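Hello,

Our lab assistant flagged a job as stuck in the queue for most of the afternoon. It eventually completed. Since we weren't sure the result was trustworthy after the delay, we are filing this so someone can double-check. Below is the sequence as submitted and the structure that was eventually returned. Let us know if re-running is recommended.
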Amino acid sequence: GKKLHANRPQFGTLQVRLIAGKDLKISGNFPLLPGTKPNPYVIFKVGNTYHKSKPSLQLKNPSWDQFFSFPLHQGDKMRVYVQVMSNRDFVGSEMVDFTEIETGRPVETWLHLHGMKEDTHNPRILLAITFLPSGH
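-- returned structure --
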């Protein structure tokens, strides 16, 4: 079957740099199985494109410094969906709208993760997002 967006012109590229995390914690009160180490990783979705980061060895304050590139096709929403996992455990998720983003300049943002019981801790990840229009 043909890819749905094959006929839709590309209007730009979104670059996402995954920098670090702070105060991450597995949601729920399940201790890790013996011998299991946390390996937090991030799944990104923009339009029809998914990217998954390499895991970090540190759950609480991971450092990734990884770079991902997403083609933007006509009709794609200007949004990045973010989900943070560790092994198969859910850490948190959030969505970034980059409709208002300045073109061609990386914008750093701390993204506060949701989907856990409201806790005193405040899990977040640091991203730098750059929008590059096609033909530039």
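-- support follow-up --
The delay was a queue issue, not a problem with the job. The result is valid. The two ends are 32 Å apart (CA to CA). The mean pLDDT is 87.
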